[in-house]
Amino acid sequence: MCANGLYVLAVLSGLAASGVLPVAGMRIYTSGDVEAVNGTDVRLKCTFDSQIPINPRTLTVSWSFKPLTKGREESVFYYHEKPYPPPDGLFRKRVSWAGDVMGRDASIIIKEVKFTYNGTYTCQVKNPPDAHGALGEIRLLVVTTASFSELLLLAFAIGGGITVLVILLLVIVSLRKYRRRHRQQEGIEEAPRKERKDPTACHPSRAVHLYAAESLIEIDSSDGMISDASTKDPSSSDESEDDDDDDDGDDSD
User: Around Cβ 234, how many Cβ atoms within 10 Å?
Assistant: First the structure.
């Protein structure tokens, strides 16, 4: 009985290893066809999805290249715990790692592409035991100038950036104008509060009384003394009248 169980387990393991039985499949996603201008850098995007947790110690990424013309397949890049750029060949010192295995990203960057880089790039990711699945392919086309669609996208990007800058400048200018007007209004409102009264000035009602009092003041031209008509002694007026009568009597004599 035990021998039969071991035999069945061995058969199942062999079938799984040969790919007859379905196992957790690795799904890889690429950007498809990519155009790049001669002499520029290009990013070959490759992402993956594994049905088991990512193990950074066992996960591997392999990139290979097959030219459009007849030629042998060449290794481009390898990753296992750390990047391994090609030590020689067509892509020596031309490839850098741009991925993040924990973020399920296995992208690379090819620097200063040449026309000899035209071809198909294959991305393969293994996360044991999730090691089977379709390969991701990218067809790179190196051109002399950018296509119309790329130029249009570039124009939109530049125009959008300029539009955002203009909007920001308008907002900043508007805020400054608003603050300046607000300060001016506050200054106008605070000005009457800070106004100080002249101690030598008097209220209009008091000025009328002063003017009336001055009109009652009489100035004696004979001795230069100032007398108030409203405060004269009645007896003095009678005496002056008697003196006038005596003078009249004398004259009549």
Answer: 7
